[in-house]
Amino acid sequence: MGNKASTPLGVVDEGSQLSNDQMQEFLANTNFTPKEIQKLLLIYRKIGGYGISQTPKIEPEEFVQALKYSNPEIGFLMYKMIDSDGSGTIEFSEFVEGLNAFLPESPLDKKIELCFNVYDDDHGGTISKDEVTKIIMMSTKDNQFIQLDDAHLNLLVDELFEKYDSSLVGVTEDDDEEKRKGNMSLADFAKMVKASPGILDIFEFDTSMLPSPEEIMA
């Protein structure tokens, strides 16, 4: 991790405080309250070491720790969703809008798109059975009512692909293995998730996780 220009959180540098217009824009386009946006600004400044007029390099570990994710794996995936180009540089607007997308009251379509994109590593426009399996595994991991062993998990994913993967339409047992593997498009994935929206509940961002200003500044 490189050295960062450090700014005491109690001091407001030029460009590191939201103007009234900026605040109103965030309030108009997100579901955060003014207090929550101010907390996010403090967190952003702490982990980035810059004012909002600059775009800091934010490390995944700092992101996960600052936002108090109890499951670091979920936190790292959220980081990847926000840092969509993998550069590690995240503008404050991206930081806020990315977290806003996963508030419970935010539109499901945006959550679906961000989740799909983070698993579509090669940007080929599809995700495989292995990637959908990872999502299902995480969504059921801490659910005491749903415990799936590997055999049942694989069977469930096979059934989901048979039902929702449009690339498998017309494919038979006589087709080659590569064609029978299936690759789910964003539209297919959206249909699957909308039929069982709880799949993405693990990614929901709970604003009660936000530390107090005093905790942030400690």
Automatic annotation (TrEMBL):
Please indicate if the UniProt record lists GTP-binding as a keyword: no
Domain of life where this protein originates: Eukaryota
Q: Which UniProt keywords apply?
A: Calcium, Repeat
Annotated EF-hand domain residues: 78-105, 107-142
Q: Name one GO biological process term.
A: calcium-mediated signaling
For whether the record's keyword set contains Zinc, the answer is no
Q: SMART domains of this UniProt entry?
A: EFh
Q: Name one GO molecular function term.
A: kinase binding
State the name under which the record lists this protein.
Calcineurin subunit B
Lineage, broadest ranks: Eukaryota, Metamonada, Parabasalia, Tritrichomonadida, Tritrichomonadidae
